[in-house]
Amino acid sequence: QVQLVESGGGLVQAGGSLRLSCAASGRTFSSYAMGWFRQAPGKEREFVAAINWSGVNTRYADSVKGRFTISRDNAKNTVYLQMNSLKPEDTAVYYCAQGESIIRTIRDPGSWGQGTQVTVSS
């Protein structure tokens, strides 16, 4: 059983930056792909970014390409989401997820964290 704990959320002005972290425990971190999703009030949860086990391959939602960067440190069992040029529409609860492959993580991760709130003020 994997445990995923997100941190780093908060309140930031539009144009600002935040870095989210997700610490994983419970199984071999480097064997799994990782991803970030978000859910805004009144909306369905949506894919944001994913990274494969080695960190070589990444995928992004069109809405965050060029602004967000996903990365991982397998020695620290942690995945990150660097968010730059934040917009009010990025406001959401951000969830960390883990899956057996980058594609499976995007489609149906299987394991989720509890989420961290990101609020971007205009």
Task: List the total number of helices.
Answer: 1
Quote the beta fraction. over 45%
**SSE run:** EEEEEEEEEHEE
**Estimated structural class:** mainly beta
- Structural Rg: 13 Å
Residue share in helix: under 10%
What best-fitting shape do the alpha-carbon axes yield?
globular
- Average predicted confidence as pLDDT: 96
**Number of beta strands:** 11
Low-confidence stretches: none
| Main beta-sheet annotation | 7 strands, mixed
N-to-C terminal Cα separation, in Å? 40 Å
Question: What does the secondary structure layout of this molecule look like, with pairings?
Answer:
Layout: E1 3-7, E2 10-13, E3 18-25, E4 33-39, E5 46-51, E6 58-60, E7 68-73, E8 78-83, E9 92-99, H1 102-107, E10 111-112, E11 116-121
Parallel strand pairs: 2-11
Antiparallel strand pairs: 1-3, 3-8, 4-5, 4-9, 5-6, 7-8, 9-10, 9-11
Q: What's this, in brief?
A:
5% of the residues lie in helices and 50% in strands.
Give a structural overview.
The chain is mainly β and 122 residues long. The protein is 5% helix and 50% strand. The strands form two sheets. Strands 2, 4, 5, 6, 9, 10 and 11 form a seven-stranded mixed β-sheet that branches. Strands 1-3-8-7 form a four-stranded antiparallel β-sheet, with no helix packed on it. The chain is globular.
